Amino acid sequence: MLVDIREILADARTKRYGVCSTSPVFSLAIPPIIQACEEKRSPIILSVTENQMPYDDIDNVGPELVRYAHKTEIPVALILDHGKTMETVTRAIRMGFNAIMFDGSDLPLEENIRQTAEISRMAHHFGLAMEGELGSIGGKEGKTIEARDAGYVYTEPETARRFVEETGVDILAVAIGNIHGVTAFEPQLDFERLRAIRDTLDIPLGMHGASGISDADMKACITNGISKVNFYSTMSRNMVVAARQLIASDDKFVNFPLLVNAAQEAACETIRQCCDLYGSAGKIRSNGQRH
Q1: CATH fold of 5-278, please?
Q2: Is the dihedral of CA 221, 226, 232, 235 positive or negative?
Q3: Residue 202: which residues within 8 A CB-CB, separation 6 or more?
Q4: Of these residues, 56, 81, 103, 170, which one is catalytic?
């Protein structure tokens, strides 16, 4: 069922568990993600990321996300992730998404506030939730990151207070040492900063770039205030590894549907593990209600 992301994250914030937010990119990855969450009785946030739209445009995958969200009994929120333009934001709203994440993190603070506030007003006008990002975590989804970006900018608690007050966002994505992509180094997370941000704000916090973070650190992030966990690159890697292994097992392999099935099962198992790790498994009863 399509559920307001604010409702999903309010429960997660209160009960101190995390909800996975992931991008299927292609329609064929939607069923295994939904299957994993149905098996684990977990809510899920599905997204289309603007910088991945060259692979499959929102006009193609968007209607399928909406269809699957209404078809399943588990709570599903649909969010435009890392929206950069008003055109894409408008398309997501018309498509039936119920949340917008505008990424102005590469802008000067004042401009980030101005643009985020403008889109926040529009999102709220249509009853949609709004996520903003403060700080700059760098990296790139679906890539292996060898070293930290020199331009990394941490989220400052007092600046976060001002940002939330002036933009009206419902969710804030923070930079505490996390980085997009699969990292070839162990990110050093600033838990003291995270706790300070949590204690300063009265809204759910999101963390992008969860793929490079150890299980222990991920649990600590959730304990210390993260409710929305953006996760993609490890799932993508696991799908590629499954496909490679299948091809390597038979030099005469030509069965594309089996290749897709192997990648789908890898996606399903990855999301199962996320539900267990983030603590969202078992939070939904058989009738769709929360425990």
Answers
A1: TIM Barrel (3.20.20)
A2: positive
A3: none
A4: 81
Give pTM, 2 decimals: 0.92
Q: Is 146 exposed, middle or buried (0-12, 13-18, 19+ CB in 10 A)?
A: exposed
Q: What is the CA radius of gyration of the chain?
A: 18
pLDDT digits (tens, 9 = 90+) for 49-93: 988 888 888 999 999 999 999 999 999 999 999 998 899 999 999
Q: Is 103 assigned a catalytic role?
A: no
Q: Among 54, 127, 119, 41, which residue's Cα sits nearest to residue 83?
A: 119
Cα–Cα distances (Å) from 35 to 1, 41, 90, 256, in that order, read 14, 10, 29, 21
Q: Which residues contact 76 (CB under 8 A, 6 or more apart)?
A: 1, 2, 3, 34, 43, 44, 45, 46, 68, 69
> What distance, in Å, lies between the first and last C-alpha atoms of the chain?
16
